[in-house]
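Go through this fold for my students:
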Amino acid sequence: MTDASRGALDGVTVLDLSRILAGPTCTQLLGDLGATVWKVENPATGGDDTRAWGPPFVGDAEGRKTDLSAYYLCANRNKSSIALDLATPEGQRIAAALAARADIVIENWKPGSLAKYGLDHATLCKRHPGLVYCSISGYGQTGPNRDKPGYDLMAQGYGGIMSLTGAPDGEPMKVGVGIADVMCGMYATIGILAALRHRDRTGEGQHVDLALVDSQMAWTINEGTNYLASGKVPERRGNQHPNIVPYGVFEAADGHAIVAVGNDGQFARFCDAFGLAGLETDPDYATNPARIANRGALLARIAPVLAKVPAAEIVARLEARKVPAGPIHDMAQVFASDQAQARGMVVEMESRHGPVRLIGNPLKFSRTPVRYAKAPPSCGEDSETILAEIAAETSGPAGC
């Protein structure tokens, strides 16, 4: 078998006790990289919460709604689903047997709540010293808020990103997708891979503790450090940049375009593109710090000029002068673009209910490319297979 067919994480097994988005994002990434992922779902509740987060849903051959919502599809490929009720002794026994065969366990239960099932990190890591155990929660395993529930919207509010997002005179605004969940899943993936590296060198597993709020605070990045350096609370600026001008979304004659002037040389070429000669040498605008200080006056000079030019022409003029600029696509334009096609960012997989179209993985490897081996499963779809793999006695297929 070649490296390309196995994937970089071939031979790594993941027991996924998570649901919704942060944990599933992480385990889908691990599955894309070649890991075997066992997704545990509760048959009493219909499985992962996001199975019901529609429409839209995938329809079966007769057009009937299935348990594959589009939301669920976004984070659950390359996994096998086993239906287990962890509140039952049998469910706990099987989950413990799966954990014994896993390299990684990931969960996003309320801190401490898995202890009553014997599936918490302290119990499993003591039993299996080489286990990498990752816990995701709203506020982490410690701190005064550890017992509060965690949802993406609350993390965006608590962690500060909503205070930075939206129009200056509007209400605080969340990001359009569950970015706190997604970024927490990314950090979890990095933490797990680092812990695996340590395990492979030393034989020691460990507990990886991730909080939605911590990860959201971390990716306030320059605006967070702007505050820490200055003590000044950042303002909402809509689509404008706090540290670079002009850099943002501008109205065009037929819509909007992105202009991203990153340095003084680009600013001079920007001025040339739109007949604004003299601005590039004006002391009020010649340097980026000066443009920041005179942001309002500069934008008042630029905006009316750009508003008379079609968006595509704005982009073309600036690209010809090597000034960063671009369009603003809707989802149809995104996935129909030649760039998306060239980069394999739309993939089609065959589920038990028919074909599904998914967003491709952005990672491109020269030796061990990501794999698209298994479409997101229905709840309990792989129960018999997984139980057979661990040689457990079953009375029949489990299902949701």
Summary: The longest helix spans residues 179-202. The longest strand covers residues 36-41. Confidence is low (pLDDT under 50) at residues 392-396. The CA atoms of residues 259 and 317 lie 11 Å apart.
